[in-house]
């Protein structure tokens, strides 16, 4: 079983967020819920944590780890770029802090078939949201490269055709 992210700079994060009881905090990159757990502990007994992630594995793991906090946490599958809409839908007009721990998680890197790894041999994929499809919110890296190569070939053929037409006209 591949482990989830160990939260980094935990003390600094908690200090910067100035966690307080009763506060409302957003973790826009929930991952395995390490930071979220610490925020919930530091906002006891009545703080609220909204956790957002695009990755179903991350949400499943966090749901398990944060179960003891009951109704004090709301976990949402989504993109933190849509935070405004997410909070509006929850009827939350004000928050006390937002955390974005940007990047990939250890779980994504260490799970071969997620296609993020530098060291494990597996097809390139690199979608944070595995339910997203090509041409929707995120293509796999492989399809993206394939599309880029096709675009380059089309561009090269067009340039060659234009050049040969110009040369023919000159001669
Ligand atoms: C470095 S990990 C976060 C680890 C987390 N702080 C913890 O304590 O376990 C980054 C997470 O952000 C998520 N992520 C990346 N881009 C995202 C986006 N635009 N919207 C929501 N989640 C995103 C990834 O799926 C990943 O789970």
Quick rundown:
The chain has helices at residues 10-17, 34-42, 56-65, 83-89, 106-110, 141-170; strands at residues 24-27, 48-53, 73-77, 97-99. It is an alpha/beta fold and 171 residues long.
Q: What can you tell me about this protein's structure?
A:
- With 171 residues, the chain is of the alpha/beta class.
- It has 2 domains: 10-114, Vaccinia Virus protein VP39 (Rossmann fold); 140-171.
- The chain has 6 helices and 4 strands.
- The protein has helices spanning 10-17, 34-42, 56-65, 83-89, 106-110, 141-170; strands at 24-27, 48-53, 73-77, 97-99.
- It has a 4-stranded parallel sheet with strand order 3-2-1-4, with helices on one face.
- The longest helix is centred in the C-terminal third of the chain and has 30 residues, at 141-170.
- The radius of gyration is 22 Å and the shape is elongated.
- 26% of the residues are buried.
- S-adenosylmethionine is lined by residues 4-5, 7, 28-29, 31-35, 52-55, 58, 79-81, 101, 103, 105, 128.
């Amino acid at each position: 079983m591949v482990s989830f992210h160990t939260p980094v700079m935990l003390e600094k994060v908690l200090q910067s967020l100035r966690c307080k009881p009763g506060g409302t905090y957003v973790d826009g990159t929930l991952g395995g819920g390490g930071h979220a757990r610490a925020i919930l502990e530091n906002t006891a007994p009545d703080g609220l944590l909204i956790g957002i992630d695009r990755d179903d594995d991350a949400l499943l793991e966090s749901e398990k780890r944060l179960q003891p906090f009951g109704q004090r946490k709301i976990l949402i599958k989504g993109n933190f770029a849509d935070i405004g809409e997410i909070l509006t839908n929850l009827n939350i007009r004000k928050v006390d802090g937002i955390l974005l721990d940007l990047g990939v998680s250890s779980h994504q890197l260490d799970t071969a078939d997620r296609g993020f790894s530098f060291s494990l041999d597996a097809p390139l994929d690199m979608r944070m949201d595995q339910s997203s499809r090509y041409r929707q919110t995120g293509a796999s890296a492989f399809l993206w490269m394939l599309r880029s190569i096709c675009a380059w070939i089309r561009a090269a053929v067009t340039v060659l055709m234009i050049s040969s037409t110009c040369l023919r006209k000159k001669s």
